[in-house]
Amino acid sequence: MTAEITALDLEEAGAVLAAESARFASFGWMRGTSGNLSVVLTRDPLRLAVTASGHDKGELTPADVVLVDGQGAAVHGGKPSAEAELHARVAALTGAGAVVHVHTVASVAMAHRHPGGIVFKDVEMLKGVGQPAHDVEVTLPVIANSQDMKVLGDRLEAARDPRMPAVVVAGHGLYVWGGSPRQARHHTEVVEWLLELELTRR
């Protein structure tokens, strides 16, 4: 462990991530072992607790977490998600305290229909991501997928809209962030609701 982060800190973060993962898994958004979550533990240097790779996200325990650095490399624990590097990039880029990555049908389907971005307007639920419900168009960016997390991070950085705390990776799923795990959860649920609404409309 590090001087700034204790074993108890990591266990407490693991308990939060396990609870959040179970919630998302219950919605069918983290099927099999898909998806991953993270929470920032320190900002300088950047350290995140990330869900461990290869685990059923509906059955995580507080021990199923890995401490990673600002490049997503393991500092303590087992094997982090392959996408830990992108979580760290999002946290550094946006100042987020937590990042959620889920694989939802609506995000993949809508990105296929709207590869240039998904536009939302005149919907009350936009307030859930801090935007007016009317008279404003907000675009959820869509970026092409890559197995190279640096490439994916560059695409996310270039495409992101500060008004929308989320990005869809085409053919893959949804990345969402917030100041805390709770806010990241709320943003995820709101963005997914908006996606499901648009999918239903069309």
What does the model show?
With 202 residues, the protein is of the alpha+beta class. It is built from 5 helices and 10 strands; from the N terminus they run H-E-E-E-E-H-E-H-E-E-E-H-E-E-H. The protein has helices at residues 7-26, 84-94, 105-113, 149-159, 181-201; strands spanning 36-43, 46-51, 65-68, 74-76, 98-102, 118-121, 137-140, 142-143, 166-169, 173-178. The strands form 2 sheets. Strands 4-3-2-1-5-10-9-8 form an 8-stranded mixed β-sheet, sandwiched between helices. A two-stranded antiparallel sheet has the order 6-7. A hairpin with a 5-residue loop joins strand 3 (65-68) and strand 4 (74-76). It is globular, with a radius of gyration of 16 Å. The termini are far apart. Keywords: Amino-acid biosynthesis, Lyase, Metal-binding, Methionine biosynthesis, Zinc. GO terms for molecular function: methylthioribulose 1-phosphate dehydratase activity. Belongs to the aldolase class II family. MtnB subfamily.
Topology:
Blueprint: H1 7-26, E1 36-43, E2 46-51, E3 65-68, E4 74-76, H2 84-94, E5 98-102, H3 105-113, E6 118-121, E7 137-140, E8 142-143, H4 149-159, E9 166-169, E10 173-178, H5 181-201
Parallel strand pairs: 8-9
Antiparallel strand pairs: 1-2, 1-5, 2-3, 3-4, 5-10, 6-7, 9-10
Helix pairs in contact: 2-4, 3-5
Taking the alpha carbons of the first and last residues, their distance comes to: 50 Å
Structural class: alpha+beta
What is the spatial order of strands in the main beta sheet? 4-3-2-1-5-10-9-8
Unreliable sequence segments: none
Task: Provide the residue-averaged pLDDT.
Answer: 94
Tally of helical segments: 5
